[in-house]
Amino acid sequence: MGELMKLKKQIRMAMLSAIALAIFWVEAQIPVPVPVPGVKLGLANVITVYAVFALGTWEAAGILLVRVLLGSLFSGQIVSLLYSAAGGALAFLTVLGLRQILTEKQIWVASCLSAVAHNLGQIAVAIAITQTPALLYYLPVLLVSGLITGLFTGVAAQALVLHFKKIEKHPTRT
Fold first, then answer.
1. Is 34 left (phi over 0), alpha (psi -120 to 50) or beta?
2. Residue 1 has what pLDDT?
3. pTM of the full predicted structure?
4. What distances in angstroms separate CA 62 from CA 88, 135, 155, one per listed residue?
5. Hey, what's the torsion of the CAs at 121, 125, 131, 136, to 10 degrees?
6. What residues have CB less than 8 Å from 23, skipping those under 6 apart?
């Protein structure tokens, strides 16, 4: 790969990391209508899912890592790093596995299942930290909310992948 191509890829990754971090920060300012810990929209996951399908494994992992680390630092909630890292890792692995069998028109499926995996990772960390298995009572609400928000982020990520693919085929048409 030429130096110019490497530079373009690095710039694209930096831009996507910044966008994901900005989305994360804005979403943190929005009150969640459900009084259950761990329920949120997960809008920054649009960027992660897009990156897995459009850029590749290592690039997407880098973007996710930057968002999780800097998001925890910027929000001042270092404890959330454990929850975000566990949930993010499980969600990421789920999308990677499903990328092998799904088409670009089925990205929404990968996003739904990765949102569920994210919630499972978060609840596992919460139980491990608090030593409170009763936290499993939150699981049904987390799974339903994960499917709903995962559908939304998946549809958005799928639209991005398909739109940018169209632009790459016909750069003069938008």
1. beta
2. 65
3. 0.88
4. 12, 31, 22
5. -30
6. 43, 44, 46, 47
25, 56, 80, 112 from 70: Cα distances, Å? 10, 21, 11, 25
Q: Using one digit for the tens of pLDDT, what is the confidence trace for 110-121?
A: 999 999 999 999
Residue with tokens 């994210």: 118
The answer to whether 20 and 47 are in contact (CB under 8 A) is yes
If DSSP codes are grouped into helix, strand and coil, which group holds residue 87?
Answer: helix
Place of tokens 């459009």: 54
Q: Could you read off the pLDDT of 48-87 as tens digits, one per residue?
A: 999 999 999 999 999 999 999 999 898 877 888 999 999 9
Residue type, 54: A
Could you tell me the two tokens for 25?
């920060």
Percentage with pLDDT > 90 across the chain = 73
* Cα–Cα distance, 75 to 97 (Å, whole number): 30
